[in-house]
Amino acid sequence: MRKPYTKRPPTVLTIAGMDSGGGAGVAADLKTFAALGVHGACAITAVTAQSTVAVEAVYPLPPEAVKAQIGAVVSDLGCQAAKTGMLATEAIMEAVYLAVTEHRLKNLVVDPVMVATSGGILLEPGAKEAYRKTLIPVARVVTPNVPEAEALLERRLRRLEDLGPAARELAHQWDVHPEAVVITGGHLIEKGEATDVLYERRSDRVHYLLGPALDTRTTHGSGCVFSAALAAYLAQGKTLFAAVTAAKEFATQAIRGGLALGRGCGPVNPMWNLLQEEGES
User: Which residue in 184, 170, 271, 181 sits closest to 223, CA to CA?
Assistant: First the structure.
C-alpha cells in the first residue's frame, strides 16, 4: 500500500491583485511558489480586467474581505513568509497592515506596485503615502523598481550610481525596518546590464547585482515574480543576500523563458524549467 504523502513545505502568502491575463499578480506569484517548492496561499485585494496591452478596469475588494483572507490562511496553515503586490487603495493597505501586525507576519516582502507593465494605474491617487505610514515600516525587504523608487523618494534616478544612495535613503526613512531595500534595475539599463541594487541596513552595505539586459518583450509580471521568489527563498531559510541573488537569477530565467502571448508585453514564465520548447525532450 502506498504511503501517504506527508511533506510539509513552507507556506508563503501573496497579498495581491488578480490579473485576468494570468501574467502578473496572484497568478504569477502562485506559479512562482509552485516552481520553487513552497505552498502558495493568497489573499486577493482586487480583480482586474487586464491583458498584455492594458488594464481596462480595477475592482477592489472590501478591506475587511482582504483582512479575513489573511486571517483564515495564517490561523490554519501558518505563514513562513508573505509578499504584497497590488493593494489598490489606502483602505486595503491599512487592512493589510493591521493583519500583518496582528498575526506578526515575518519575512514580509513589500513590492510597492503602482503601475502595470502596460502603463495601467494600479494604485489610487494619494495611496502612495500610505506605503510610508503602514507597510514599509513593518517590511523585512522592500523591492521597488526604478519608477517606484522615484515615486517614494519624489525625485528622479537617472544613473546606476544614483541607486545605491537611493536604496540607503529609503531604508533609513524608518527607525528599524525595512531590513533591506532592493531597487530592481530593469528600467535603467547601462552597458547591456540590468543591475539590481541591494542595500542591507545591518551591515550598511550596498551590493550591485549584475545581470544581462535581455532583448525581449516578455516582461509582464517580472517584478511580481522577483518579489515572490524572494519571499519563497526567505521562507526556505536562505540568508537575505542569498535569497535576493537567487530571486534575481530566477526572475531572469523567467523573463528569458517568457511566453510570446498577447499583443503587448508578453508574460514572464515562472515555470520556465518545466515548459520546454517544441522539439525538446
Answer: 184
- The residue to which cell 490562511 is assigned: 73
Q: pTM to 2 decimals? A: 0.92
Task: Cell numbers for 247, please give them.
Answer: 530571486
Q: Using one digit for the tens of pLDDT, what is the confidence trace for 9-31?
A: 999 999 999 999 999 999 999 99
Task: Label residues 222-244 b or e (16+ Cβ within 10 Å = b).
Answer: bbbbbbbbbbbbbbbebebeebb
d(CA 218, CA 60): 27
In 3D, which of 28, 184, 55 has the Cα closest to residue 119? 55
Q: Which amino acid belongs to residue 83? A: K
Structural domains in the chain, CATH included, are 11-256 (3.40.1190.20)
The 10s digit of each residue's pLDDT in 229-257 is 999 999 999 999 999 999 999 999 999 99
Asked if 221 contacts 267 with a C-beta cutoff of 8 angstroms, the reply is: yes
Alpha-carbon span 233 to 10, nearest angstrom:
10
